[in-house]
From TrEMBL:
GO molecular function: glycosyltransferase activity
Family: Belongs to the glycosyltransferase 1 family. Bacterial/plant glycogen synthase subfamily.
The Glycosyl transferase family domain, residue ranges: 286-434
Keywords of the record: Glycogen biosynthesis, Glycosyltransferase, Transferase
Organism: Albibacterium profundi
Domain of life assignment: Bacteria
Alphabetized InterPro entries for the sequence: Glyco_trans_1, GS/SS, Starch_synth_cat_dom
Domain Starch synthase catalytic: 2-230
Protein name according to UniProt: Glycogen synthase
Cited SUPFAM superfamilies: UDP-Glycosyltransferase/glycogen phosphorylase (SSF53756)
Keyword check for Transferase: yes
Pathway: Glycan biosynthesis; glycogen biosynthesis
Length: 478
C-alpha cells in the first residue's frame, strides 16, 4: 500500500503548529506497520533543506493563468526522517522562507497541488492513496476526479484530515482561472457560500475524512466556521482519530534537548531540570512553575493571559512563577512583555518559538496552562504529561478527550469556560496540590504511565486505508 501525505508542514523541515508535528511523525509509524508512507510538501528556504542532500527526480512545467512555471521535484537522499520526503519547488512561488503569510498564498497552494498532481500522473503507474492534510491540499480530491490533466489518477482513493476547521483557504471565483483545467459542470463541489472553499471541497470529494480527535469531530457538527451542515451531511465517511506524539522526539529519557533525563520511576531529573531552568531565568525554584506554550491568538485563549496574570498576582502573591513562550497577536505580545517587566521575579515571556526551549519548559514546569477556545486535538497537553507536567485545560475537543480531571482520579485539572475567573479557580487547585508533594508526584507518575504514542492511532489509520483500498479494488474490477 503506497500512501502520500500531502501537507504544507512537516517537522523538522517546516513547522508552525501541530500539523507539522503530526505529518513529521505519523508516516514514520505507518512505515513500521508495513505501509509505504511518504510526504510531499513545498520546498522552503530553511535550515533542514539547505543542510541535507536532495536528489532531483523530476522536472516539469504547469500553466497558472497565462503564465508558465517550471517546477522541480526533489527527494531527500538519506531517509533521515524514517520515510521518503519529496519537495515541490517552483521558482517565484514555492521557494520562500516562511510557510504562511504571503499575499499570494492562495496561488502558492494552487500551484503546489497542480505541480504534485502533474508529477504523480506522469510518474506513478501503480495505485496510490493520497492523504490530504487541511485546506492547503484540499483541492486534490476534486482535481483527481475532474481535472483534465490527471486522468491517470482518476478513481484513486483519498483521505482528508481536518487539523483545524477554522481555516478553510477561502478564495474568490476569479482564482478559478489559475487552476488546472477542470470539468466546469462540477464547479459546485468547489463552492461554499459563493466562494471557492478548499476545505469544503476536500470534505465533499474525499473518500473519507478524519479529525484529530473524536471530541473535535462532534464539535465540527455544531461549530465549524460555517461548514457545520457540510460536516453533518458527510458524517457517514467521518472518523475521529486522536493524534499521538513521537515518543522518540518527546520522551524525558531520550530527549537530548534537556539536561537531566528522567522517567515515571525516578522524578529526580525533573527536579534538577526545574532548578536549572529557574536559575537561568531568575525564577524562584520553590514556587510552582506554570507555563504556556503556543500561538498567542484568540482560539488558544491567549488574549486572556494578561488579565489572568494580573489577577493571579493579586490572588496568589509570591506563590507562583509563570513562563510564556509564543507569538501572535501584537497587542497580546506587548501586554505580556509589559507584565514580564513589571513582575520580573515571577513572570518570564519569550516572544517567538524556540523548539529547544519548549522541551526545557515541558521538562521543568509543574503545570501547563491551555485555556483554548478551540483545540481540535492539542499536542501540548500530551507533551506536558509525557514530562510529568500537569495540564490545566479548558474542556474542549482533544483536551476533553485526553485529560482526565483529578476529581475523577485522573491526572489533570479542567474547567468549562475560557474565562479569567475559571482559570483562577483552576490555578487555586494547582497551587493547593503543589503543597501536597506526595500526591502531586503520584499524579505525575500516573500521567507519565499513559500511552500517548502514535502506535495505536497509526494502526487505526491503517485499518481505514485498508477499507478504502478494498473499496478501490472492487471498483477497479468493474
Amino acid at each position: 500500500m503506497k500512501v502520500y501525505h500531502i501537507s504544507a508542514e512537516c517537522y523538522p523541515v517546516a513547522k508552525v503548529g501541530g500539523l507539522g508535528d503530526v505529518v513529521g511523525a505519523l508516516p514514520k509509524y505507518q512505515n513500521r506497520l508495513g505501509i509505504d508512507a511518504s510526504v510531499i510538501m513545498p520546498w522552503y528556504d530553511c535550515a533542514f533543506v539547505n543542510e541535507r542532500c536532495f536528489i532531483s527526480i523530476f522536472t516539469g512545467e504547469i500553466k497558472i493563468g497565462t503564465q508558465i512555471y517550471d517546477y522541480h521535484i526533489s527527494k531527500e537522499r538519506d531517509n533521515v526522517l524514517g520515510f521518503s520526503l519529496y519537495l515541490v519547488k517552483i521558482p517565484g512561488l514555492l521557494d520562500r522562507k516562511d510557510v504562511y503569510g504571503y499575499s499570494d498564498e492562495s496561488i502558492q497552494f494552487i500551484a503546489f497541488q497542480h505541480a504534485l498532481l502533474h508529477w504523480l500522473s506522469a510518474s506513478q503507474p501503480e495505485p496510490i492513496l493520497l492523504h490530504c492534510h487541511d485546506h492547503h491540499s484540499g483541492l486534490i480530491p476534486f482535481f483527481i476526479d475532474y481535472g483534465e490533466e490527471f486522468k491517470s489518477l482518476r478513481g484513486m482513493p483519498t483521505v482528508g484530515t481536518v487539523h483545524n476547521g477554522q481555516y478553510q483557504g477561502w478564495m474568490g471565483w476569479d482564482q478559478a482561472v489559475l487552476m488546472p483545467a477542470f470539468d466546469w459542470a462540477h464547479r459546485g463541489l468547489l463552492d461554499w457560500n459563493g466562494v471557492i472553499n478548499p476545505l469544503a471541497a476536500l470534505i465533499k470529494c474525499c473518500w473519507a475524512y478524519t479529525t484529530v480527535s473524536e471530541g473535535y469531530l462532534e464539535e465540527l457538527f455544531g461549530k465549524a466556521n460555517g461548514l457545520e451542515a457540510l460536516f453533518a451531511s458527510e458524517s457517514q465517511k467521518s472518523h475521529g482519530i486522536v493524534n499521538g506524539i513521537d515518543s522518540e522526539v518527546w520522551h524525558p529519557m531520550k530527549d537530548a534537548l534537556i539536561k537531566f533525563a528522567f522517567d515515571h520511576t525516578n522524578l529526580e531529573g525533573k527536579r534538577k531540570n526545574k532548578m536549572t531552568f529557574c536559575k537561568q531565568h531568575g525564577l524562584t525554584y520553590r514556587l510552582p512553575l506554570f507555563s504556556f506554550i503556543g500561538r498567542l491568538v484568540h482560539e488558544k485563549g491567549a488574549d486572556l493571559l494578561p488579565a489572568f496574570i494580573e489577577a493571579a498576582i493579586k490572588a496568589f502573591p509570591d506563590q507562583f512563577n509563570m513562563m510564556i513562550l509564543g507569538s501572535g497577536d501584537a497587542e497580546t505580545e506587548s501586554k505580556l512583555i509589559a507584565l514580564s517587566e513589571r513582575f520580573a521575579k515571577n513572570v518570564v515571556v519569550t516572544i517567538g518559538y524556540d523548539e529547544s526551549l519548549s522541551h526545557r519548559i515541558y521538562a521543568s514546569s509543574d503545570f501547563l496552562l491551555m485555556p483554548s477556545r478551540v483545540e481540535p486535538c492539542g499536542l501540548n497537553q500530551l507533551y506536558a504529561m509525557q514530562y510529568g507536567t500537569m495540564p490545566i485545560v479548558r474542556k474542549t475537543g482533544g483536551l476533553a478527550d485526553t485529560v482526565v480531571d483529578i476529581s475523577q482520579d485522573g491526572y489533570g485539572i479542567s474547567f468549562e469556560n475560557s474565562t479569567v475567573s475559571e482559570m483562577l479557580e483552576a490555578m487555586a487547585q494547582a497551587v493547593a496540590l503543589y503543597t501536597r508533594k506526595n500526591l502531586l508526584n503520584q499524579k505525575r507518575k500516573l500521567m507519565m504511565e499513559q500511552d500517548f504514542s502514535w502506535e495505536s492511532s497509526a494502526d487505526k489509520y491503517k485499518s481505514l486505508y485498508q477499507s478504502l483500498w478494498a473499496d478501490w479494488e472492487k471498483l477497479s474490477k468493474k
